[in-house]
Amino acid sequence: MITLRSIFILFMLCTVSAYAQFDSLLFTVSGYFNYQADNIYALEDYNRDGYDDILIYNCELQKAFIYNGGNPMDTLPDVTLNVDLVRMDLIDVNGDGDKDIIIKDNWFNPVIKIYFAGDKIDTIPNITFRTLPGVFFTSATVIPDFNGDGKEEFVIFDPDLRYSPGGVQYGALYFYNTESVFDTIPHYVIMGDSANKIRIYTPIQSTGDLNGDGYADFTLIGYQKIDNNTDQYFRRFYFGNPDWNFEPLTFYFNFTEPNFAETLRIINDLNDDGFDDMITRDYTNLYPYYFYNVVLWGGPQFDTIPDCGLNTQNEGLNSFKLKNLGDVNGDKYNDFMGAALNFGYQNVRLWVGGSKLPEEAKKTWYGTSSGFGRILAAVGDVNGDGVNDIAIGSVVYYEPINCNIGNIYIFGGDTSVVTDINEPSVNKIEEKILEIFPNPFNGQTTISYSLQSSGRIKIILYDILGEKIITITNQDYPKGEFHLKLDTEKLHLSSGVYVIQLEEYENGNLKNQTSKKISLLK
Question: CA 496 to CA 481: how far, in whole Å?
C-alpha cells in the first residue's frame, strides 16, 4: 500500500549513487590543532603560480604556515606568520583583483591584521587595526557582495551592544567598506533591540545568492525574550540589495521540535540552476528516519519545502562543519562534504552536485579513535590538475585542553567520479504532463494535465509539511487533456507555498506520480 509519506519520499528523494574513491593522498602534515577551529584555510592562488595555496595554523606554536600548491606540493612552508589566529578570511582589500589575507589575531585582545596577496607575502601585516572603542568582537565574516558594487563586505560580530561587554547582550554586526582604501570605521550596523529584548544571537552563519539576483544574501539566528522563562528563537535571512536595506525575512522556531530554521546553512549552487541552495535537518518526517538532512533548492521565490533528502545513515551532518568544495570531480557542479553530528568517531561524507543530487554520499571516510574527521576544509586545486581537492584532519581530544596533536591530509579530486542517475521505482510523470498557471497566483489558478491513456487520476493539495488540505479530484478520466480550476479563497488559505500532487492509477495500483510547488500570494 502506498501512503502519503511514501509518495512524498518518492517525489523528493535525491537519486541513488554508487561508491567512489577520492583516495589519492597529495599532502600531509603533523602539528597541534584545535578541534573546535578550522585550522586549515584555502588561500586561492595568492602568488599567481597556477596552483592554489593553503594556510595551516599550529595552535601550540601560535604560528600560521603558508604552503604553496604544486605538483607535488612542498611539505616545507613558504611563509610563517607569527599570529594567535582565531579566524581567517580572504578579501580584496586594496582593489588589485587579488584576494588578501585577513586574520583575527588574539581572542581576548583582538586585532585585525591584513596581508596583501602577491608573489611573496610579507610577514609584517600591511594593515593593522582594532575595532571601535567599546566593541569586543568574537567573529568576523566576509560576504561576497551584498550591495552589488563588486566588492566584498567585511563584517564583525559583537555579542554585546557597544560599551557593554558581558552586560547588555543584544548583539551587533558592523559592516566595513572594502573600497580601494580600506576604511577602518564601519559604514553600517545591525543591532539587537534592548527595548524589545531582541538579541542577535549568532554571527553571520552562511552566505550565498539564494534568489539569483546577483546580490549576496546571509542568514543568522536570534531570539526575543518573552519573559524570564521564555525565549522565542528566530532565523533571519537578509537579502542583498543596492540600498543596504536590512529588512529581514524571519522564521520563528523552538529547539524542542524539528524545524526548518535551527540548523540551516546556505551552500553553493549544487544543481547549476543559478541559485545557491540550503541544507538543514529533515523537519517534515517525509523521509526514512535515516535521512537526517534535506536540501532546499534556491529560487526566485523563497519556500521551505525540501526538494530532496540525504541518506546520512541516521548520523546527521554537523551544520557547523558543512564545507563548500567547489568542483572535486570535474563535472562543473559544486560539491560539498560534512562530518557526522556525533562527537566521537566522526564519519565524513562527500556529495557530488548534479542536476539531480544523489541521495547517497559518493565517498565516506570513517572516523577513528585518533580523531580523524574532526578537521574539514576546502582547499581549492592545490596540484593544478583542474579539479578541487579535499582536506581532512585528525586531532585527539583531551578535556579541557583544546590544542592537541593531530594530522592534516589533502586528498586529490577525482575526475573518474560520475553522478549516477537512477530513478525511483515508481515512475514520475513527465513534467510537461502537469502544468499550473498562473503560478504564483492570487486566489485562483488552473491545473492542466495530459493523459496518454485512460485511468483513475487523483489530484491532492498539500501544505509544506505534507498535510493534506483537500482532494481536488479522484475519478476515472479518458485519454486526453484536462483543466481544473483551483479556488483557494474557499479554502481560506494563507499566503505561502503549497504542493499539488498528481497520481495516476492503473487497476488500483499507482502507475505514475508527480508534484509541483505553487505559491499563493495575497
Answer: 28
- Grid coordinates representing 511? 502507475
**pLDDT tens digits along 102-144:** 999 988 888 999 999 988 889 999 999 888 888 888 888 999 9
- Please give, one letter per residue, the 3-state secondary structure of 201-270: CCCCCEEECCCCCCCCEEEEEEEEEEECCEEEEEEEEECCCCCCCCCCEEEEECCCCCCCCCCCEEECCC
DSSP state of 433: G
Which helix (DSSP H) or strand (DSSP E) does residue 63 occupy? strand 63-67
Q: What confidence tier does 201 reach under pLDDT thresholds 50, 70, 90?
A: very high
Q: Which of left, alpha, beta for 151 (phi over 0: left; psi -120 to 50: alpha)?
A: beta
In Å, how far from its chain's centre is CA 319? 8
- Measure the CA–CA gap between 39 and 56, rounded to whole angstroms: 6
Give the model confidence (pLDDT) of 304-326 as tens digits.
Answer: 888 889 999 989 899 889 999 99
Domain boundaries, the chain: 10-411, 426-520
**Does the domain at residues 10-411 carry the CATH identifier 3.10.20.70?**
no
Measured from the Cβ of residue 19, the count of other Cβ atoms closer than 10 Å reads 10
For residues 247 and 238, give the distance between their C-alpha atoms in angstroms, rounded to a whole number.
7
| Cα dist from 485 to 41, 71, 179, 503, whole Å | 55, 63, 54, 17
The secondary element (H helix, E strand) that includes residue 11 is: helix 4-12
Q: Quick count: other Cβ atoms within 10 Å of Cβ 255?
A: 8
Instruction: Indicate the SS3 state at residue 94.
Output: coil
Task: Dig out the grid coordinates for 180 from the structure.
Answer: 580601494
- Distance in angstroms (rounded) separating the CA atoms of residues 252 and 199: 13
pLDDT of 269-287, one tens digit each? 999 999 999 999 988 767 8
Fold of domain 426-520: Immunoglobulin-like (2.60.40)
Of the candidates 333, 417, 328, 419, which has an alpha carbon nearest to the alpha carbon of residue 380? 328
Residue 124, C-alpha cell as written in the block: 609584517
DSSP assignment letter at 340 = B
Model pTM score: 0.80
Kindly list the distances between the CA atom of residue 331 and the CA atoms of 326, 335, 379, 417, 485, in Å, as whole numbers in the listed order.
Answer: 10, 10, 18, 9, 42
**Ramachandran angles phi, psi of 476, nearest 5°:** -80, 140
E strand spans, 75-216: 79-81, 85-91, 100-105, 111-115, 127-129, 139-143, 153-158, 172-176, 188-191, 198-200, 206-208
Q: Where are the beta strands (DSSP E) in 385-426?
A: 390-395, 403-411
- Please tell me the predicted confidence (pLDDT) of residue 425: 35
Q: Cβ contacts of residue 1 below 8 Å, gap of 6+?
A: none
